Amino acid sequence: DAKTTQPPSMDCAEGRAANLPCNHSTISGNEYVYWYRQIHSQGPQYIIHGLKNNETNEMASLIITEDRKSSTLILPHATLRDTAVYYCIAYTGGFKTIFGAGTRLFVKA
Amino acid sequence: AAGVIQSPRHLIKEKRETATLKCYPIPRHDTVYWYQQGPGQDPQFLISFYEKMQSDKGSIPDRFSAQQFSDYHSELNMSSLELGDSALYFCASSSVAGVAEETQYFGPGTRLLVL
Q1: Mean pLDDT of chain A
Q2: Considering only alpha carbons, which residue of chain A is nearest residue B104?
């Protein structure tokens, strides 16, 4: 699986959009970009995933650049409950998932 | 919707004791993953099972063993416990095994404290 790089921490004002970047410059053509988040010692929670097209669900949007070397997770209206560690993972299957360092998002009132 | 169930949620053991953690995957999920998360660390992959067979192995100590049973639940057995084994242990399950588009659903974790 390709290595991903994320900023260690970010702040966001409540009600504003949170844009979390992820660099995956060595991603291969069959690797999906997955996002999970972990809220204070709870089990990681699936957010969204994509291959090359932008994706949107009830939680977030995922924007993947045309060359697929980077992506951005967008939480459109961040709330205090979105404070968590966000993990970007480039996944090619294979029964094994490697979590990187993630981004610690602080949503402030 | 049914989620991944882990038991116990909290466990306190003494050094050199044995612990067994259980994981019940989401119904019709046939793949189970185990992760260990030490204090202030990111989840580390330990081992996975698909259709009751071990499918991959990460940084799992030789003192640990695991298996998946016919009903797809899994157990992580930890022997000769050490202080450094104190951690959160997460189980995840998925329904599409080993392919690139595979979403894992995590349980709430078992918090193990070794004294």
Answers
A1: 93
A2: A46
